[in-house]
Amino acid sequence: MAVVEHLEVERKYDAAPTATAPSWAGQEAAAPVGSILRAVYFDTADLRLLAQKITLRWRSGETSEGWHLKLPAHAGRVELQVRARGADPDRTPDPARLPDELAVRLRAWTAGRPLVPVARLVTLREETEVSGAGTFCDDLVTATRFADGSTVVWREWEFELCPDPDPELVRRADELILGSGARPARSDSKVARALGRGAGPARARRAPQTVAAFLAVRLGPMRTRLCAQDFPVRAYEHDSVHQLRVTTRALRSLLQAFAPFLRKAPTKRLADELRWLASELGGARDAEVRAERFESLAATKKHSELRAAARALAAEEREAYRAAHQETVRALDSRRYLHLLDALDAYVADPPVRKANRRTGAGAALAEAVGGAADRLFLADAALAEATDQGEREEGLHEVRKRAKGLRYVGELAAEAGTGPFAWAEPVKQLQDVLGEHQDAVVLRDWLRERQRKEGSHALQRGLDQLIAGERARARKREAAYPAAMSAVTEAWASG
After folding, report:
1. CB under 8 Å to 379, separation ≥6 — which residues?
2. Where does the record locate the signal sequence feature (predicted)?
3. Model-level pTM?
4. Inter-residue contact 409 to 420 (CB < 8 Å)
């Protein structure tokens, strides 16, 4: 089915039943047009979509009849429509027959739970187009809740901005609406108001005090980010696999930072499942990284045999990415993935803090975690002196990189909890960057050596020789930068 997509940017207002709509004096406005909008809204029984400001409805009786899915966006909301002609306005459609094009976008958000009707809305609308600014809607809404059959009636105004609106005309429209007695709406959407889920007044956000509160506040947005990255991966969007993998690693790092204060069994189970998801993403991500590296070399290097080898390998790795991506999507379709989302939800709702640490402050816990992470980094650096060959040294540098990443991450958490910022944060980031490129070069060098052993073409063999030499030189260059980068971290740490 065809999906119609557009960005909806609107402002919502509460209006009294007796309020008079703006006259639009001084602005070019069309005559109002009346219509009746009928819609059934769907969600899970525990309203998971509404909690994420996602709405799914079936609309009937006018030009935009069919399924409508609205998803939060950076500015406004993305609305996706799958239209259906001749829909029965009195029928409640079966959500199990939701078009695949929309259902796939909801799988992570619902964690596989069934959709049920939650509210039926009938809206009497008068719509006025305001030239250069947008469309004003005067809505009288009657909402019936499916759970208990109760009905609520209210009046609200909306102003949906047109594409590329004139900012001055939008400002004037807002002044006219507020001047007519309206006020900014208390609810994010009609269905939120119908179900009694208003947005509430905005409150200044304070750093949570306890470990449990900090985890709940920090894990919630990360769970949201993981779900938001689910569909881009399925849709083959550039860098989406990488971003989802980064989120799984960030979640594991958060659990590791607070491990001394958390019950071991549930924390290990969740960490193991996050590790599984990261591994399922690894094949596609590794192929993507190799393809991008080879494409860059093919575009920038002058030697013809090297360019030819890089182009051939880039094509191979793009094909490898496509195959690995199919395996990744199968993992996202699995019940194990849905169980992981459920486990993460349970962790957000009630972080399993040890009984003895329920009153432990997040700042104190993170200060301890920062100290432990720094100790592990300096011990890994000291262990490099024991390396007996280049292979051991490369493994040691990789260990230092992991420890630097751990210190950087807990430092960011500590700063969020009110401890910091730290003078060593930027030097640690630079150290991580140096060793990250070193590890990339080492891994690709070894991969190229293995690929060379399987290659029969002499021309490609020569190109592979040059590619291997290039990665070897890149690794050595980054290794040579390591002492200065590590020294900068040591000095910054000593200075506090």
Report:
1. 403
2. none
3. 0.86
4. no
Looking up tokens 């002058």 gives 302
492 class by beta-carbon count within 10 Å (0-12 exposed, 13-18 middle, 19+ buried):
middle
Contact, 106 vs 132, CB < 8 A?
A: no
H helix or E strand, kind and range, residue 314: helix 304-332
SS3 state of residue 157: strand
pLDDT of 134-152, one tens digit each? 999 999 999 999 999 999 9
CA dist 243 to 65, 90, 225, 249, 403, Å? 35, 43, 9, 10, 21
Vertex 215: Cα angle to 209 and 218 (nearest 5): 100
Q: How far is CA 444 from CA 76, 316, 450, 451, in A?
A: 42, 15, 10, 10
Domains and CATH numbers, the chain: 3-187 (2.40.320.10), 211-495 (1.40.20.10)
Are the beta carbons of 106 and 49 closer than 8 angstroms?
yes
* pLDDT digit string, tens, across residues 413-447: 888 777 777 889 999 999 999 999 999 999 999 99
Cα dihedral 472, 475, 479, 485 in deg (nearest 10): 160
Distance separating alpha carbons of residues 96 and 113, to the nearest angstrom:
11
How crowded is residue 419: how many other Cβ atoms within 10 Å of its Cβ?
Answer: 19
List the end-to-end C-alpha distance of the chain, in Å, as a whole number. Answer: 60
The proportion of the chain whose per-residue pLDDT surpasses 70, expressed as a percent, equals 95
Reading the block at residue 234, the tokens are 């399925």
